[in-house]
Design a protein that fits this description.
With 572 residues, the protein is mainly beta. Strands 4, 5, 8, 16, 19, 20 and 23 form a 7-stranded mixed beta sheet that branches. A 7-stranded antiparallel beta sheet has the order 14-13-10-11-12-9-15, with no helix packed on it. It has a 6-stranded antiparallel beta sheet with strand order 36-41-38-39-40-37, with no helix packed on it. A hairpin with a 6-residue loop joins β44 and β45. 7% of the residues lie in helices and 37% in strands. α4 packs across α5. The chain folds into 4 domains: 76 residues; 89 residues, Immunoglobulin-like (Sandwich); 130 residues, no CATH class; 155 residues, no CATH class. It contains 5 helices and 46 strands.
Length: 572
Amino acid sequence: MAIETDILIDTDLKRIYMDHAYVEATDTEYTSQELYTMVQDTFDELGYMDDTIPMSAQTPNAFTMINGWFIDDETIKWFKGGAIESSGWTHPTNPTGIRLLQLDGAAGLTAADIGTVVTGVTTTDTGTLLAYDVTRKVLWVRCDAADDLFDNAAEVINVDSVFCGNTTAVSTTGENLYVNLYTLGTLTSASDTVYIVQNSEVISDWWGTGIDKCDVLIKVKELGATIDSGNVIVFCRYYPSAGDAALFDHFPITLTAGRQAVPLATALDLNNTSAQSVVADYLNGTTYTIAFATGGGPYSHDLNNGNGAKNYDVEINCDGARLSEMYEACKYVCREGSTTQLFSDDGQEYIYANASYAPVKQSPLGTFAGGKFFGARGVWIYGYHTDDVKAFQLIASDNTIQNPPNTVVCKISSIVSGDRCGMFMLPSEGAAIETDTYTLSGQHLASASTVTVVEAIVDGWAGQDPPQAGFLRLIDTDGSEVLTTYTSWTGSIFTLTTTLGTQVEDTAKVWVPVIDKEATGTEIENTLIQELTIYVTVRVRKKGIIPFEAPRSIGATGLDVPAVRTTDGIVI
């Protein structure tokens, strides 16, 4: 339709308006220049010569509503291609200027109320209703005189003599500014959506999908008050329900005047192909759980890479999952529409853990490439699958890159359930198994949940740390042995998986097998941070097979020893 049909001029109320909200799918947008042209073409007619001109032009993309003429927020949505600001709204500089009334409710208003009298019951101030917003509970009122201030913060407001609501603040007045923002660049598909965050709130969009659709006027000043210094952030974090998401992008900009461009670019993310429903299962625990720290900190963690403890701002618990899955979950919680709370922001607004950090636009918690996760600054991950012990790189809060140590897998394979398996350290190549690495410090009761040794645990393997978790043997002073497992160690203390179960006396010997377990499947493994060549003896025994024993060494790539299970034809 022609702009003269869609956009209406009301000379009695001095307003330009559209009598229904803009609907992207059916309505035509117009440029601000087209609006200016229509106004000039209308007001050069003889019938309008006694009316003031509504608009002036400063440039082809900067226009002003002059002489106190009014345009409302909904009508602004019909325009693109140039900024529009107001002049003559400030009251009482203009005795018939415009004031904004904030109410506790504004129900019952209809289009028929436009042009009717607004009255403050306590102040007796009056004006004419120009527009209203039921959601925001506000009225725009053209005052009747200079002293119609609506300056009572809690008075009854009537519209056309009918109760509308109570004011919750003194009215405000001043000028409005709508700056033209438009996006350019290349998005993955025409279906990609762009959304805008202003003052930590997502603006309800009316502009549709695609890079060329976001050409809009954004209100950056309302009645003299600049909204968040004119700052907005434009996002493209489209994540289709069927998967095949793109790498994200965003662009912060300060809107000041005229027409301002926002460059955006996305590309298909080959590491983020799972459907939303699948990734949602990751998060709700069907596959695994993932947790984000949302406050507190900093968190201190030692990656055991020789750099000591470092501070981090975010913790992500993979709970045994592959990092490829965790990465998709990171994308999911930061996608458009996400309300997952990340540092007090909705996920769709989250950019970084600290405003001084460089943002990772493609995925704000970290990216994934070449089978490896690259954490954003301040992001700590833990609980990942053992196959991913080296498949990541982190950046601590102090901006130092933290690569994982050489964590290797030590494995005995080609076994069957019931095989008794051991991988035992030797102090040197060809030596006997080391069974006296540590000395128990004091008597330990059966209820003990930790084992304390005299020596520093890191010193016990001659510079090579034992596994971070695994197996423990204690040889009591009477020669009896206790086999147990531990979940972690620090200093001189092993934290046990459960209680010790048997009392063990002071000075008992303590040692750490790499593997010490009865098989329940076809392989058994453990991990450790490899620093030195570790000589071991590998044993697999079970009645019915000839005992298997092999000397081996654990190097930079770990160790996988397939057992040879030869049937023992003699045993009965």
